[in-house]
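User: Fold both of these, please.

Assistant: Here is the first one.
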Amino acid sequence: MRKLLFVVVACALSLAAAQWRRSDSCPAADGQHIYIVTTNDIHSALDNVPRLASLVKQYRAKGDVLLVDSGDRCSGHTFVDDAPMPGASIVSLMNRLGYDAATLGNHEFDYGMEHLADLFDLYDFEIVCANLAADDAARFGKLSAGCVFERGGVKIAFAGVVDTEMINEGRITPAGKSAAFRGAKFSPARETAARVVDSLARDNDFVVLLSHMGNKTDSLLALSSPSCRWIASGHSHDRRATDVGGIHISQNAKSLRYVTVADLTVRGGRIVSVDYEQLPVSEFEPDPEYVEAVARIRAAMPEMFDTVGRAEYEATKDGVANLFVEALAGHDYDGFRPEVTVYHFGGVRIGGIPAGDIPRWLIYDSDIFRSTVFIGEMTRSELECLVKTKYNSQGADGGKDKESHYVYLRSDVPYRIDTLPGGDAERVVFPTLDDGRKYRVAMCNYVAEEYVDNYEGLKGVVDMRNTGIPVRDLLLERLAASADGYRPDNRIKQYEASSEAGNY
């Protein structure tokens, strides 16, 4: 049944793939215009805020504007995330821009529920997230399942949901470390969204779901919940503008590179047409007022402009991942020298390092999660179990984890993943390691706590201990040790081999 459903989704997407603008009917000759401007996955992208400000200002000059966001405002850049109160500066800018509503993304939880509650005190706009229930409800009084705005005699409703793609400590949660979600309970995102959207549709003229579920789940929801007029999506960082089952789905990549604008023409208290357009933010000149505001945020952290190294040539993202591995592998942990180092590719948060001087903020940007190093001992078979289980991992809905079926675990020791025709790993082979002995291993806290401590065959068997040493410090140490300059290694040392092709 699941395969059939995905075939239906694929067909719907192929029919609409080239459609970037849609009208529900012929545009009205006259009438009031209401513009809904949507953003998603801002990820602390300060530099594009002044351009967004100009865009919003232009639309406000033409008609009513509702400005909304689909989650992940935080976790992306040092000048927001390493400030005394992480995330506060981006919330302040959003308040200044006049946002009306937003949902929560998984990265809103990165610093835990107490910190999220502190940020809630700063929001001047509605926060809608129907599938979150906080243990300390009093601290989250601003939270609601949905909200309604009346413009031009019509009621426009927004619901919100955050993904529930992981299973942490036996419960469904958004993507992230289990500790971040303590003090919160989540109901299944897609089922909750369908229920809330159906409820809002009974009393309102136009219902928008601010979804932080990602592409696949949004498509499934569109096919099963016709009440929603528009899914303004986030989470998977795609650029998307399609119709699925008669419902418009948009997503604007990340870091404020694009926005989607819905133009609702209202006449006589009725919505007579709806047009969607996705716009590159780069086409708008930066608003000087916001340029100055961003400059003040950066100037408050002058130490971040210190030069910490020099790259002799450009490092790709794979090269940055290798830098992480090298940094952990080269450190002496009070006499413990790693023989194998493992790092999570998803924890590398920059796309590369350009040639030339490297500022401190760029290294901090590469590890926005403030990871620490864990050390311990593992056998060859345990390392192979770690990689295979991650490669084959599934989300809470039984589908593929978005980070699975790809070489996400990088190492200084080569390995091969032998895959079956269906795409799963049949086995993992570390050809240079011997059976029957333990190897000294270093890894980041995310791999140790979320994988080793939870995977069958490793949980309770492998003991990794937290050194408390920040990965950032080791990255800086590695760059400082490169007296002749940092020479990136951009190779991928792990690879996949298909058993179907017989190439292993």
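And the second sequence with its predicted structure:
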Amino acid sequence: MATATAAELAARLDRLPMTRHIWGLVTLISLGGCFEFYDLFLTAYIAPGLNKAGLFSPESLGPFAVLAPIGVAGVGTFVFSLFAGLFVGAIFLGHAADRYGRRAVFTFSLLWYSATTAIMAVQQSGFGVDLWRFIAGVGIGIELVTIDTYVSEIVPRSHRGRAYAYNQFIQFIAVPVVAFLAWLLVPTAPFGFDGWRWVVLIGAVGAIFIWIIRLGMPESPRWLARNGRLEQAERAVSHIERRVAAESAAPLPAPGALEPEDTGQASFSEIWQSPYGRRALILSIFNFFQTFGYYGFAAWVPTLLIAKGIKITTSLEYSFIIAIANPMGPLLCTLIADSIERKWQICIGAAGIGIFGMAFANAADPTALIILGVLVTLSNNLLSYSFHNYQSELFPTRIRSRAIGFVYSWSRLSAAISGLVVAFLLNLGGVNAVFSFIAFAMLIVVASIGGFGPRTRGLALERIAH
């Protein structure tokens, strides 16, 4: 079938059973994302170490010291630097995977992360740490957009929900790992090298190992077909079919009805054409507000606990216990991922963050703090995997990476702002003020997606795109 059309190739992919080979492809993609999550979440766990090392002093922060009078110089600038980089990467380079391919950009961005993060680990000033944190964030911003695009295009339509939940399960394994390493290393200085630096370097070195493993990853057949490389796309699909057929030990089901071809010029202006313009607007509003809840808690757990009067060592211990829930949440979500409409899963997760977050703010008992912290984390997990799945489904292959990059960039911008906002609110009104603002942001999330988001569950990507 060397002359198969893009629509025929897509139909052949969508009819496949979810065997070990396809799960293996998702695993390889997810392992790369594992180190992106390691880097995203290390903010929360090394911040106390950076502060202890004097890197948040006015002298060390350089130009960022001007923010000291409003209480955000320090952890706030560190969080801001990462997410400012993520914003730049997502909005200005998010289209790269549409132009150069999912696999090429995927690999490049991981190498970028490893190199820039290693450089950050040896900086001697707070300004230097923040600067290289920003540069590393640019590479991570491209990576996360490409992962969402990649997974949606290789997984059969009936299993996309489970695939994204599994993808986040693998990625979130990084969170308890970085929390555990920080608990052990941050209060110490092995071989005279600050513990926080060891935590950063471990992530950078590990990412190179995963890059080597992923050299055998195939390009997305949908991207190949869309770009006129039908023979390569045919070979990629045929290889997947042979592996799936051998593993299922049964004839493959017949392809379903062909969906409309993916046509168009793949320009930025297409994002604003019907029906994509309405979707882009809804997702932009959603993404801007969802991160205030997500990273407002996840990136600040030890600091929030310290603000409640818990000493740094105990705070890191509690944070590690809470972090263990991170990979468990997506694993539990595989049970409902393809049974409940995606938009309602997003709304349930947002509501949980708001409700459990307010309870966390008003709790004092250590056991209650840990339980409520776990419940906020599980709600974060549900929100995260479902919206990554959802936004990757709403745009066609030709602009999928570009559109995801654009709408996702607003979450990067708000996350950068959240570092400053949370620091300001924490200084102004304590933990209660932080979670009151988070609850408001989650209300906006529920209203935007629940009220205006389209349905996607069980539909072919090409059908949703039209």
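The CA atoms of residues 338 and 446 lie 20 Å apart.
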